[in-house]
Specification:
Chain lengths: 272, 165
């Protein structure tokens, strides 16, 4: 047994490869699932990443203010304009809300739970994101303490971001809809009888198909979520940029530009 | 390179990678700091401690940002092993050596990562990954050159002095 003593480096290398290969095989078998040890590591990392992320976002926003001052002013003007429109819309919606409350009271009186409130929203900051284009997974700073659980939908101001794939105390892991493993059912905003399924295209975009191959979708159509699956309906997914009929599969395929800029997400909201 | 120092440097790099660096993405791509540090330390310091530390941070990275755990670690191990094998034939004083290792290390790691993740599910389009490689290489080379100028005077005393032993 002299060989292991004389070749400590080689032994260490072989053991490392074996150990990681075992972890890898387990990971392949339980694709996307996490372990208690993984949760502990994620929680420890999130504790440090939280404050660091705030500092880095502060630096980034500060630099943006200096180097992109004109753009910031322009954006501010646009936001002011948008704000005034939204205020008007909000006034109208408040009236509808009052009507909805009345309907809810009526539904309770009639023991009908079809319009039950399902959406509680928790705001969160993105504290870590992998800058590579491999996986579209990022970490947010709220978790099980806020009631967040696996498969909760995640949105931001512009549209659907993705879903929670794992959560713990003070952290949740979110996978973007542009990831190829994500599948989302959609309907066209213009005509909600036109429905289909969209998923990541493996190249930071979205691609999908219409369930009806004769569906009259056109470029520029806005897609929103349906109530099928885990996502609540009406959340914007993106805009169709290309429509093509595939003769082999007999499906009408669509290419979509996501509503969300996945390279720059700082704040999100989780729908419980 | 002492293992304690390597752990601290890799930890800082890992934290910066997931937070600060995302604000300075180059066409959506950021440099892989762990890979760059692994290449530089293994090449310059001629010991293997950086490989084992990179291996641990590869697993942490996969836990935080991936569905498959262990591919990054094996990728780092492969790159580290290749550098150990080829470092005797390259002169560490010459910046070209760092650039060569930077380019090859990036390509080997990314192709290995693509193969490792696609072994389970056909998740990434190869042509898309291939198109991104120049960006990855450029990002990593910038970091490699910065590390070279930071470390070279510490690693090689009296650079370019052929009489110094």
């Amino acid at each position: 047994m002299k060989w292991p003593k004389n070749n400590k480096k080689t032994v260490a290398l072989i053991l490392s490869v074996l150990l990681i290969s075992i972890i890898l095989l387990i990971s392949y078998k339980n694709f996307g699932e996490s372990s208690a040890a993984g949760g502990f590591i994620q929680q420890s990392v999130a504790t440090v990443q939280g404050p660091l992320s705030k500092v880095s976002n502060g630096i980034s926003n500060g630099l943006r203010g200096i180097f992109e001052f004109r753009d910031v002013v322009e954006e501010n003007d646009k936001l002011k304009e948008e704000n005034s429109i939204l205020r008007k819309e909000n006034a109208g919606l408040l009236l509808k809300k009052a009507e909805l409350e009345e309907l809810k009271i009526l539904s309770q009186a009639l023991n009908y739970d079809g319009v039950a409130e399902r959406n509680n929203i928790v705001a969160a900051d993105v504290i870590a994101m992998n800058g590579s284009n491999w996986f579209n997974i990022f970490t947010i700073n709220v978790g099980t303490e806020s009631g967040i659980k696996k498969d909760d939908a995640v949105v931001n101001g512009t549209g659907l971001v993705g879903k929670v794939i794992d959560s713990g105390e003070g952290w949740s892991k979110v996978i973007g809809i542009i990831d190829e493993s994500s599948k989302v059912s959609f309907k066209v905003l213009r005509d909600d009888t036109l429905i289909g399924i969209v998923s990541g295209d493996g190249a930071s975009g979205l691609t999908g198909f219409m369930l009806d191959s004769k569906a009259s979708v056109i470029e520029g159509d806005i897609l929103v979520t349906t109530n099928i699956g885990i996502y609540p309906q009406g959340i914007e997914i993106g805009k169709i940029t290309k429509v093509k009929f595939d003769n082999d599969t007999q499906l009408k395929n669509v290419t979509i530009t996501p509503a969300v800029n996945f390279k720059n997400i700082q704040k999100v909201a989780v729908i419980l | 390179m002492k293992i304690r120092i390597a752990v601290i440097i890799f930890a800082v790099a890992f934290l910066i990678q997931g937070t600060l660096l995302n604000n300075f993405a180059f066409f959506g791509v950021t440099p892989n700091l762990t890979l760059c540090i692994l290449i530089a330390f293994t090449f310059f310091y001629e010991n293997e401690s950086a490989i084992y530390v990179a291996l641990i941070f590869g697993i942490i990275n996969d836990i935080c940002f991936s569905n498959i755990i262990g591919v990054s670690s094996l990728g780092y191990l492969l790159v580290g092993f290749l550098i150990v094998k080829f470092r005797p034939v390259l002169n560490k004083e010459n910046i070209l050596a760092s650039i060569i290792f930077g380019v090859l290390g990036t390509l080997v790691f990314n192709l290995f990562y693509w193969a490792g993740t696609n072994a389970n599910t056909n998740q990434f389009d190869f042509t898309y990954i291939l198109k991104l490689q120049p960006l990855y290489v450029i990002c990593n080379l910038i970091i490699m050159v910065l590390i070279y100028f930071t470390l070279i005077n510490r690693v090689v005393r009296h650079r370019s002095d052929r009489y110094y032993r």
